[in-house]
Amino acid sequence: MEVSGVEVKGGKGKPPLLAPFLHPVKATVKVKRIALVYNPYGGKKRAQKLAETIVLPLLRAADIEVEVHTTSHAGHEAEYARTLDLRGFDALVGMGGDGTISSLLSGFLSRSDAGGTALGFIPAGTGNTYVREVLGQKAAGGCESAVRAAVSVIIAGHTRRVDAFRCEMRGEDRTSPLVRHALNTVMLGFGPDANAVAERRRWLGPMRYSVSIKTEIMKLPFRKSTPCTMKLDGEATDMDLFLIALQNNKHTGIKHRIAPKALLDDGKVDVLFTSKPVRSILKAAKLDAMISSGGAHIHSPIVSYKTASCVEIETQGAPQRIMLDGDIVGFTPLKLEVLPLAFSLFTPENPAPT
């Protein structure tokens, strides 16, 4: 099996680092006016301090006018992105974690005039895949160096068209239809289950994810199987659901390089899955270690790695959790469609390989 022309079965070492984009800079914007949306209590309440001490001073020093909009409830970012009058604005910027980015993106892509304004993201949450992928920095969200780097990228004005995912699923009541957009990742199975546990351990900060993964691995011998059918561009595969990762980028969070061949602008979703449940604690721990240390898991015989433009997943029995850009937002069944080059994103001119 091949991904982007690279054989992923039979090798042993971790895949080489790869730049996040296939295409060069599309345009350079002279940024004069931006709308900034953020949760002042995000990132353990650090977002407000970062805005006041770093973000706003840097932008204003660059003679950029900033209109600030703070959020007060879940989904408020999407409301702003959907309803703000963006005429005369060069950028809509979200500051926060992956959830903020995802919510802002969903609202923005529902607009009829979304094509005229570029999006920018500033990391200020407890977890930021964007930092790791686009900026090439390993720092956790809220780290001052990462925040400064993100602001500098916006000031420089280099933009690329990047892909997004349109996801149809069931809402929290497990019956109502729900449509959301994603920039980073959509996961089913073990990932969302571990994330649900991690959310009850927010006091641990970013390390809650790795701790919860390890504790859930210890429960694998007792984990129940869920039969499911996954269609990739119409081709069906029947399996017992253990882990399905649908990736636009390489990473989940800062540490886990789960799809090392993924590109943000190739018009494809990278699909990783295990066709059989993993019951062995040792095997699961080894896979987790390979993902964390660079991506050698793609050579494992129990991992399949494919690409597609459309993914459909149906599960038997109770609807299963769907995690979208780090948050559990819905339940199966799922239909994911890639929206190629869906929006303009501020990026470094020459991003570092990750």
Question: What's the order of the H and E elements?
Answer: EEEEHHEHEHEHHEEEHHEEEEEEHEEEE
State the share of residues found in helices, binned by percent. 25-40%
What value does the Rg take, in angstroms? Answer: 19 Å
Tell me, briefly, the overall form: globular
Structural class: alpha+beta
- Overall pLDDT level: 89
Amino- and carboxy-terminal Cα gap: 23 Å
* Low-confidence parts: 1-10
How much strand?
25-35%
Helical segment tally? 9
Major sheet details:
12 strands, antiparallel
Number of strands: 20
Give your account of this protein's structure:
- The protein has helices at residues 42-45, 47-61, 76-83, 98-109, 129-135, 144-156, 190-199, 208-217, 281-292; strands spanning 2-3, 6-7, 27-28, 33-38, 65-70, 91-96, 118-123, 158-170, 177-182, 185-189, 226-232, 235-241, 243-247, 251-252, 256-257, 269-273, 304-308, 310-315, 321-324, 327-346.
- The protein is an alpha+beta fold.
- Strands 3, 8, 9, 10, 11, 12, 13, 16, 17, 18, 19 and 20 form a twelve-stranded antiparallel sheet that branches. It has a four-stranded parallel sheet with strand order 5-4-6-7, with helices on both faces.
- Helix 2 runs parallel beside helix 6.
- It starts with a strand and ends in an 8-residue tail after the last strand.
- The model is unreliable at 1-10 (pLDDT under 50).
Summarize this, please?
By secondary structure, the chain is α+β, with helices and mostly antiparallel strands.
Relevant terms:
354 residues; alpha+beta; 12-stranded antiparallel sheet; 4-stranded parallel sheet; 20 strands; 26% helix; globular; disordered N terminus; transferase; DAGKc domain-containing protein; kinase activity
